Amino acid sequence: QVRLVESGGGLVQPGGSLRLSCAASGRLSTFYAMEWYRQAPGKQRDVVASITRGGSPTYAEPVKGRFTISRDDAKNTVYLQMNSLKPEDTAVYYCRALGLETYWGQGTQVTVSS
């Protein structure tokens, strides 16, 4: 029904930057909030950042000051700007939409390595 498609992942060096995009098939305003999660091999999937329908952002402590979540309702897209990337940021990043149901994207790989 609702599809979320992530893009923008790739291989970057420590200290580099990357911007992830999450395009929703429906109107972004339909959802209570949009979130970014990440999951590294052998670890649980943890929330990285979230943004409410009203535009209020929340960040996990490890990424505060480095990551920025934003939304463009006209494009039905949520972004995650990642700066000062560290090897510990390496993970598959997933987009999640909270509405009448919870929807997940397929994920995009981010690898931070020298």
List the helices and strands and how they pair.
Blueprint: E1 4-7, E2 10-12, E3 18-24, E4 33-39, E5 46-52, E6 57-59, E7 67-72, E8 77-82, E9 91-98, E10 102-104, E11 108-112
Parallel strand pairs: 2-11
Antiparallel strand pairs: 1-3, 3-8, 4-5, 4-9, 5-6, 7-8, 9-10, 9-11
Describe the structure.
There is one protein chain. The chain is mainly beta and 114 residues long. It contains no helices and eleven strands. Strands 2, 4, 5, 6, 9, 10 and 11 form a seven-stranded mixed sheet that branches. A four-stranded antiparallel sheet has the order 1-3-8-7, with no helix packed on it. The model has no long low-confidence stretch (mean pLDDT 96).
Helix content: under 10%
Number of strands: 11
The gyration radius over C-alpha positions equals 13 Å
Q: Count every helix, treating DSSP H or I runs of 4 or more residues as helices.
A: 0
Structural class: mainly beta
How would you characterize the largest beta sheet? 7 strands, mixed
Distance between the termini: 40 Å
Mean pLDDT: 96
Name the shape in a single word.
globular
Low-confidence stretches: none
User: SSE string, helix = H, strand = E?
Assistant: EEEEEEEEEEE
Short description:
The protein is mainly β and 114 residues long. Helices cover 0% and strands 52% of the residues.
